[in-house]
Write a structure and sequence with these properties.
The chain has eleven helices and 14 strands. The protein is α/β, with parallel strands linked by helices. The strands form four sheets. A five-stranded mixed β-sheet has the order 4-3-5-6-7, with helices on both faces. It has a five-stranded mixed β-sheet with strand order 9-8-10-12-14, sandwiched between helices.
């Protein structure tokens, strides 16, 4: 026997070193795990405080209904994140397609701030809001970021940097076609046109009326342009389709006020003063607003 060695000490050393490594890794992970748990609990509490506004049940902060000033965001997660940092007067539109019921809610507010993501989706909502809804100021998340992921500092800075709607549209390079002052120009006719929207919406059909509100014809949207070009006496066109430049040009050949009421507006429309365009959502919201005041 040349050497006797006690390997138990070496084994203990390795066990201790391994235990230290495990403890170190556990300590590193413990704080993020605790933070995540706290955040989940906080989010559960905030969700419980959410309210729903209007017939579309738009997610909103607890003060959104009574506050004179509101912040408009895209989704529920945005509302929750803003509530986390003390902003309770927030309403979510629920996506790129902004519901018409929002117009009635916003019409009662003294100031409306749209707080949108810094991406193409935010641009799309900005375009939609600018065409059909009351918006005073626009704040944007930093480029590539969403409102739901912003920190308290980023939220504060974005809101402080909010700009008027017109400036926000220029910065986003969005060209918006001005829409008609529905109440002023349509007047009593609004009552007669509104039911037609319900008849053709979702059917890809169009209804064409003369100046006395007599129905001239009904036609599939795909045939509307051709039919209008052959009809000299039309004045009101209500259809479930996009108001395109081609339709605008056909209407512009007439020398009197023409009203084109469609599902949505085409981009970068060039209008003459006597051509008035508006969306069915805008018409519907104006109709609802008028009846709520009566």
């Amino acid at each position: 026997i040349e050497k006797i060695e006690d390997v138990r000490g070496e084994k203990r050393k390795k066990i201790v070193e391994r235990a230290r490594a495990i403890l170190y890794e556990w300590e590193k992970q413990k704080v993020p795990m605790e933070t995540e748990v706290i955040r989940e609990l906080e989010e559960s509490v905030l969700k419980a405080k959410l309210i729903e506004l209007g017939p579309d049940k738009l997610p909103a902060g607890p003060d959104a209904e009574t506050a004179d000033e509101v912040i408009i965001t895209e989704g529920r997660a945005d509302v929750i994140n803003l509530m986390r940092y003390g902003y309770r007067n927030v309403i979510a539109v629920g996506g790129v397609k902004v519901p018409a019921s929002l117009q009635k809610i916003l019409s009662k507010k003294s100031r409306v701030i749209a707080f949108l993501d810094g991406d193409r989706g935010g641009d799309m909502i900005l375009r939609e809001l600018s065409q059909n809804f009351k918006v005073d100021l626009v704040a944007r998340a930093p480029y590539g970021k969403e409102v739901e992921e912003l920190t308290a500092k980023e939220i504060s800075e974005a809101l402080e940097a909010a700009v008027p709607l017109e400036e926000a549209l220029k910065r986003a390079r969005i060209s918006v076609t001005p829409t008609v002052d529905t109440k002023q120009l349509l007047g009593d006719i609004l009552e007669k046109i509104q039911p037609l929207v319900g008849e053709i919406e979702g059917n890809l059909m169009g209804i064409v009326l003369d100046k006395d509100m007599n129905e001239l014809f009904r036609v599939p949207v795909s045939e509307l342009a051709q039919k209008l070009s052959e009809t000299p006496q039309f004045k009101y066109v209500v259809f479930d389709g996009v108001i395109t430049q081609r339709l605008v040009d056909i209407a512009a050949a007439r020398d009197e006020d023409i009203f084109l009421i469609g599902a949505r507006l085409g981009e970068n429309l060039s209008l003459k003063p006597h051509i008035h365009v508006l969306t069915m959502d805008k018409l519907r919201s104006e109709y609802a607003s008028e009846h709520s005041q009566n």
